[in-house]
Design goal:
This is Lactose/L-arabinose transport system permease protein. InterPro entries: ABC_transporter_permease, MetI-like, MetI-like_sf. Belongs to the binding-protein-dependent transport system permease family. This protein has a single domain, classed as Orthogonal Bundle (MetI-like fold), CATH 1.10.3720.10. Helix content is 74%, strand content 1%. The chain contains twelve helices and two strands. It has helices spanning 3-33, 47-54, 58-89, 97-109, 112-122, 129-136, 148-176, 180-188, 193-221, 225-229, 243-253, 257-281; strands at 36-37, 44-45. It has a two-stranded antiparallel ribbon. The longest helix has 32 residues, at 58-89.
């Protein structure tokens, strides 16, 4: 092996050692733990204790259902909103564009605990601003956190508020990569702005939008902070408990590490399958 190659590997060795110790090995070890019954001492191999339970656990299916509801409703709405925001931010008619871009991106910078606390206060039954606005127009206040559907709506609104701007900035970068010549040629052919958006902008943005969808799918499958902090650990009655929160409850509340590992690998597998399905749907026809 040449000296320069050995030197390169020598410089990389500390990082590779840390990566293998704190990333690769925990992943492998977690997979092995998922096949062990960790509720007994010493731990013993038992496929049924974790993977067998997973297929018959109503709590798991409840968490899966809640996660898929958020995925099906929140992700399309957020991506559509982010696309519209990106188009508006790219408009030459908009003044102070850098300021608006920062404003839309700012929610990602806000601490998760802080923004979750703000949303919980906003939707409070007694003194929340949302219920005050509802009362002002003559409707009865809504007990947001005592109804599963209402609590789920709060979760969806919170996640959309936090991540729509982030995706809009990514889509905006894709918009700015589209050559102006394409739009000039379309204008000369008397193609109006609406037709340009649906027949030029969206097709050229498809790879960027697919990238945002895949990121959003992975993030939704791991959703934890919002149901934990906003709806008080997935309440009411598990109505907003997600897979991420269910994993936390099994691993760090019940200390059932084997079952938590099985849940984690199931989450990862679902994220991969759904992401590949989205990529397959959005593939270019041959």
């Amino acid at each position: 092996m040449p000296f320069r190659t050995r030197s390169a590997y020598a410089f990389l060795a500390p990082y590779l050692l840390v990566f293998a110790t704190f990333w690769v090995w925990p992943i492998i070890d977690s997979f092995l733990i998922s096949f062990q019954n960790t509720r007994i001492n010493p731990w013993k191999y038992s496929f049924q204790a974790n993977w067998g339970r997973l297929f018959y656990d109503p709590a798991f299916y409840n968490a899966l259902y809640n996660t898929l509801i958020i995925l099906v409703i929140q992700v399309p709405v957020m991506i559509a909103l982010a696309t519209v925001m990106a188009v508006l931010l790219n408009s030459p008619l908009l003044k102070a564009r850098p300021l608006f871009r920062f404003a839309f991106f700012a929610p990602v910078v806000v601490g998760e605990v802080a923004y979750a606390a703000v949303f919980r206060l906003m939707f409070s039954l007694d003194f929340g601003i949302i219920n005050k606005m509802i009362s002002a127009v003559g409707f009865s206040p809504i007990s947001w956190f005592d109804n599963a559907n209402a609590a789920m709506a709060v979760i969806i609104l919170a996640v959309t508020w936090r991540w729509a701007g982030y995706n809009a900035i990514i889509i905006l970068a894709g918009l700015q990569a589209i050559p102006d010549d394409v739009y000039e040629a379309a204008t000369l052919d008397r193609v109006n702005k609406t037709q340009q958006f649906f027949h030029i902008t969206l097709p050229l943005l498809k790879p960027i939008i697919l990238f945002c969808v895949v990121l959003s799918v992975i993030g939704t499958m791991q959703l934890f902070t919002e149901p934990f902090l906003i709806t008080n650990r997935g309440g009411p009655g598990g109505g907003t408990e997600t897979l991420g929160l269910f994993l936390y409850r099994q691993g760090f509340t019940s200390l059932n590490f084997g079952y938590a590992s099985a849940i984690a690998y199931t989450m990862a597998a679902l994220a991969v399958v759904i992401s590949f399905f989205n990529l397959w749907i959005g593939r270019d026809p041959k």
